[in-house]
Every structure is written in structure tokens, then in C-alpha cells.
Write a structure and sequence with these properties.
It is a single chain. By secondary structure, this protein is mainly alpha-helical. The protein contains 12 helices and no strands. Helix 7 runs antiparallel to helix 12 and helix 8 packs antiparallel against helix 9.
């Protein structure tokens, strides 16, 4: 006689977290790529759809200028405004793609028409409603039909490319949802080991990039995740990270770094000592978040990501601080990016480990479900 299975709500929650974060990550990359294609498309068709009209700077440049006014009390120079406007374009594309990718995990119907439906929604909600309401453009009825066609055509391209890239990336990551039987779980786990190469690189790389901005934030987040939820570190050289005291120590160091970063006279992060500390933190975080048997690979990727992140974030911060005339607003924005990004990656690593443990439990006890 078969024993009826009882739905495991915790397993469902874990699967949902993993799916949403994987979908959002794929969507973010897709949105960034689609923003680049959209830029190229607009450059090609602008003479056909929207001749020069003297309407002033694009909405993205105006948005960047308004942010600078709020943060520093002064606007941006023309060259800086153009660069910042391009950055706003890519940020909006990436954020929109991330929301779309997460939404597609729960409501697959949003991907209808190969992403063209998503493009239509973006054009309507962003161009026709949000931008005019924000005061960055005139009301829709004050533009010509040609201008509206230009906007909708650009966003149709954006939606189409976003969906194609998202689907390509998402298909590369096999679903890790535990199967109903032991045999299926074994087969799924084997498939995952082959298909999760993207995870093996992306998780430690993102932790390393965050470490390039704030040395102790990734180790603190990973240690807290290990101490509270577990990352499968028992019996490994990194088992010390399971201790709440270790998490408290790294957390205090991270908080201190946020304060010290705003003080004058602090050595640059690209100084040899700073790079070494970031590389060690990136390697430690990457190895702790790695899948079984891949700690050394993850450590190397994490260290390389930390060094790259230090150089890139240093250049970006210097450029933005010079354009704004103040460093502190940029520093706080960098704090938020490092903190939120690291927390999301650590949450994903913890949920992925729980999912793996649930699959292992199913394999061990799968044969006892029938009597």
C-alpha cells in the first residue's frame, strides 16, 4: 500500500526562492543586452521615425540631471549628462529585465508573443505614462504619430531581445526542483551537475565583485547564511563559518568598513594591501558558497572577481564623484549596491543548498515510501 505524500511547504518556498532569483538574474542580463540592441536600433531608425525636434535632452539625461540636483544641489555638465543618461538607460533596462525574468517564473504567460507583449507593456507604462508623469516629457497627445511609432518600435525590439536572451540563459540552468521519486531525483541531480556551470561561475563572481567594493560584506553575508541556514560546510575546512560568533565578527568588520570608507585619508582600494584583502575575502566567500567539489574553482573566480571589482568600482566612483562634485552620495549608493547584492546572492546560495539537501533526502528515503 502506498503512503500518500504530504506536500512540503518549506521545499516549495525554497524552490520558489531559487526559481525567482535565477529568473531575475537571467532577466537582468537579458535586459542589459536588450538595452544595447535597442540603442543600436534607435541609432539606425531615428532619421526615419523621429527627426530632430528640439524637445530638449532625452528623458534619461533629464532623469540623471534631476538625481544630481537632489543629491548635490547642482546639475551635470553636458558631457557628464550624456554619459549619465546612457547609464540610466542601461540601469532601467537591466532592472526592467530583472522584474520581467522573475515575473516569468511565476506567470509564464507574460512571455507571450516571444516577448513582444512585454515590449508593448514597457512602451505604454514607461514612455506613455511614467515619463510624462515624472515631468521628463510632454503628455502623449502632444507628440506626433511618427514619434509614438518610434517609441513602440524601439520597445518591441527591447522586449523581443529580452525574451530571447532570457530564455537562452534560463534553459541553460536545469530546474533543481526535487523530483517525486528517488530515481527521478538521481537523474535530475546528475543533470544539474552538468547544467549548473553558469552557477559555478556566477555566484562566486558576484560575491567577488561585491567584495571589490566592500571587503567584508560578502564574507559577513555568507557567514550569516551559513550560521542560520547552513551552506553544507560541515566537515570541511570552512566549517568555522557556521559559527554565529564568526558571523558577528565579520558583521562588525563590515559595519566598520562602511564608516571608515567615508573618512578622509583612507588608502585607495586598488593599493596592494587593499587588493590582497579583497582577493582573500572574495576567495573565502566564493569557496563557502560553492557546490560540493567545486570550492577551489569558486575560490579562484571569487578572488578574480574581487580584484576586477576593485578596479572597476574605483574608476566608476572617481568618475561619478568628479561629475557630481561630491563623493559621499556615490559612497552611500555603493554601500547599498554591495549590501543588497550580496544579501541576494547569499540568500540564493543558502536556498540552493537546502534544495540539494532535500533532493539527497529524497534519494535516501525514496524506497521507503511504499509498503
Amino acid at each position: 500500500m502506498s503512503i500518500p505524500s504530504v506536500p512540503d511547504r518549506s521545499a516549495h518556498t525554497v524552490n520558489t526562492i531559487v526559481d525567482l532569483e535565477q529568473g531575475a538574474a537571467a532577466g537582468a542580463v537579458a535586459g542589459f543586452a536588450a538595452a544595447a540592441v535597442m540603442n543600436g536600433f534607435q541609432s539606425l531608425v531615428t532619421p526615419l521615425f523621429r527627426p530632430q525636434s528640439g524637445d530638449g535632452p532625452p528623458a534619461t539625461e533629464q532623469a540623471a540631471d534631476h538625481v544630481a540636483l537632489v543629491m548635490t544641489g547642482r546639475g551635470l555638465a553636458e558631457d557628464d549628462r550624456r554619459t549619465a543618461g546612457t547609464a540610466v538607460h542601461y540601469l532601467v533596462g537591466t532592472a526592467t529585465g530583472a522584474l520581467y525574468g522573475a515575473w516569468a517564473e511565476r506567470r509564464p504567460g507574460v512571455t507571450r508573443w516571444q516577448g513582444l507583449g512585454f515590449g508593448l507593456v514597457c512602451a505604454t507604462l514607461i514612455d506613455q505614462i511614467a515619463v510624462p508623469l515624472a515631468g521628463l516629457a510632454r503628455p502623449p497627445w502632444r507628440y506626433t504619430l511618427r514619434t509614438h511609432l518610434y517609441g513602440y518600435a524601439s520597445h518591441l525590439v527591447f522586449g523581443l531581445v529580452t525574451e530571447q536572451v532570457r530564455k537562452l540563459l534560463r534553459d541553460r540552468i536545469a530546474s533543481r526542483r526535487p523530483a517525486a521519486t528517488a530515481g527521478q531525483a538521481i537523474g535530475r541531480q546528475t543533470s544539474d551537475d552538468q547544467a549548473m556551470a553558469i552557477d559555478d561561475v556566477c555566484v562566486p563572481l558576484l560575491l567577488g565583485l561585491a567584495g571589490g567594493q566592500r571587503t567584508f560584506t560578502p564574507p559577513a553575508a555568507i557567514t550569516i547564511a551559513a550560521a542560520s541556514s547552513g551552506l553544507g560546510l560541515e566537515g570541511t575546512p570552512l566549517a568555522l563559518l557556521n559559527s554565529r560568533w564568526t558571523g558577528l565578527l565579520f558583521g562588525a568588520a563590515a559595519a566598520g568598513e562602511y564608516v571608515m570608507d567615508k573618512q578622509p585619508g583612507i588608502p585607495a582600494r586598488i593599493a596592494p594591501a587593499g587588493l590582497a584583502g579583497r582577493a582573500v575575502g572574495g576567495a573565502l566567500s566564493g569557496a563557502a558558497a560553492a557546490q560540493p567539489g567545486k570550492a577551489w574553482l569558486a575560490a579562484g573566480v571569487g578572488a578574480a572577481g574581487a580584484i576586477a571589482g576593485a578596479y572597476v568600482s574605483y574608476r566608476v566612483r572617481m568618475t561619478l564623484a568628479r561629475a557630481l562634485g561630491r563623493d559621499r552620495p556615490v559612497a552611500f549608493a555603493e554601500d547599498a549596491l554591495a549590501l543588497v547584492g550580496t544579501a541576494l546572492v547569499a540568500t540564493y546560495a543558502s536556498a540552493r543548498q537546502k534544495q540539494r539537501e532535500q533532493a539527497d533526502t529524497l534519494v535516501r528515503h525514496g524506497g521507503t515510501a511504499a509498503a
